[in-house]
Amino acid sequence: MEQEVKYVRIYVERLHKLYLESANEHLENHKKEDVLNVISKEYHLTALKEYLNKAEALGSVLDFING
């Protein structure tokens, strides 16, 4: 059982890291977009929020796993 928890922890940690990296990429793209390109800026902002929400949820899972 302990081995399974270890694998789950590793998976969740990696996924958490990927979500944070994706959020940072969308933040950078949002900053680079021209002010007049509202659709693209809105897309990157929406994606950023979604990735942050997912990362936050996984952070809660990690807190639970780590007890």
For the largest beta-sheet, the strand count, sense and barrel status come to: none
Classify the helix fraction into a percent range: over 70%
Mean pLDDT: 93
Number of DSSP strands?
0
Globally, the shape reads: rod-shaped
What order do the SSEs take from the amino end to the carboxyl end, as H and E?
HH
Q: If helices are DSSP runs of H or I spanning 4 or more residues, what is the number of helices? A: 2
Uncertain regions spanning at least 5 consecutive residues: none
What percent strand? under 5%
Q: In terms of structural class, how would the helical and strand content be classed? A: mainly alpha
Q: Termini distance?
A: 16 Å
CA-based gyration radius = 15 Å
Question: Can you walk me through this structure?
Answer:
The protein has 67 residues and is mostly helical. Helices cover 90% and strands 0% of the residues. It contains two helices and no strands. It has helices at residues 2-32, 38-66. Helix 1 (2-32) runs antiparallel to helix 2. The longest helix is centred in the first third of the chain and has 31 residues, at 2-32. The protein is rod-shaped.
